[in-house]
Design brief:
- The complex is a heterodimer of chains A (265) and B (190).
- Helices cover 42% and strands 24% of the residues of chain A.
- Chain A is an alpha+beta fold.
- Chain A has an eight-stranded antiparallel beta sheet, with helices on one face.
- By secondary structure, chain B is mainly α.
- Helix content of chain B is 67%, strand content 0%.
- Classes of the chains: A alpha+beta (265), B mainly alpha (190).
- Chains A and B meet through α1, α3, α4 and β7 of A and α2, α3, α4, α6 and α7 of B.
Chain lengths: 265, 190
Amino acid sequence: MQDSHANAEDFDLYALGALDGQEKQVLEAHLLVCPACQKELARAKQRVLRLGLAAPAMAPRPQVKLALMEKVKAKRAATGARVFEMKPPKKRWGLRFSFGFAIATAVLAFATFELVKIDWERGKQIKELQAQLNVAQAKAKLDAQAMEAMASVTAAPDSTMITLLQQAGGPPGQAHVVYNARMGLAVYSGQIVPAPADKSYQLWLVPSSGAPVDAGLVEPNQENGAVVVHLTPGLVAKAFAVTMEPAGGRPQPTGPKVLVGVASS
Amino acid sequence: MTAPMQQPPDSSLIEKMMAGDEQALAAIYDRYSGMLFGMLSRILQDRQAAEEVLQDLFMQLWHNAGQFDASRGSLPAWLMVIGRNRAISRLRGGRFREVLEENEGDYASTFASDQNIEDEAARSELAKNVTAALATLPAEQRSALELAYFEGMTQSEIAAKTGCPLGTVKTRVRTAMQSLRQILDAGLAR
């Protein structure tokens, strides 16, 4: 249990979003473990949000409401029910897989041309086997690349290990990220209670400034098979976090934080 | 003279929304759009952009009504916080800025019920008091606070923009919030 609490003046600043740098990191780390300060922050948030009332109320044009209600109607007509609006997850892994698939496609095309000469039935069987072999070769190549990346990150002296801890009231779990900003690589492993069927766990790199960066979906049980994540090199990570998002993920975090780990400077 | 008709509480409108009642969404929109649009317009300084953010906000509410427990949390407080975040993200280049503390899915536990915002008359009174209190602040304190709240700037960014030392900016924002505390805390549960 914490004997000392955060500087009370910092709560308002934090709630405003004005606190930054080391002060912010220190406060966030403290908030992870201090329910009393979490309460103080909640009160500060309510206090700060009232500042918005200083802006005089204004009526939007009637067309705004009309357009909103039309959208709602259209959505219901399209889906038959109110469902979460899901956007396709960002293709962050595209670079990793496209090379392998390109090879598989090129080899498949060549194999198809050669097999046209043979009896159709036998030719069909051979084609299927060739396709399976190519997929396996591509996967092996990807696995080898992933292994190599993992080894690089974990061995590099400028890599950082971040432990992501369960959030108060959240599902049990813990994870680790080994991150190297210079390489733009992160290795994630961890375990979380399985998410509901309509949800996915999504990993985020939280930079010291700017929006959180999508680091992809993670499986609840990622303890025996670590995941290599390719990110933009040079991103300074303030923290890593796992949130629970609608199935398939979101381009930006919208769901509750499940695991959070602050990177030490 | 007949008594004024009692407006249904937010919780009952939320329940109706969960059941697919579009008019419940319309009622919530009518109740809070003026307050929200004023704030969004102040932040974005662009009517069309403010209208777009307003619409997105209510679409999100429509989609996520099932996650909101209005008997425990404040709907207008959530709308204001998320609306502010969205507007600032748009103002600063479309990047979602706040992460760890602003959790769009974590409704009720973040903001306790706030009658001073949910009740229109009380909200109007509070708005008047906040505006008046801000006007009494020294100009540099008010400016620093407004840059933080309405433009989403950090202390460092305010210092860079104003050319003031970081320590001065910190003091100004903190002093401003201390001066406003009594008004801003009015009616908040301890």
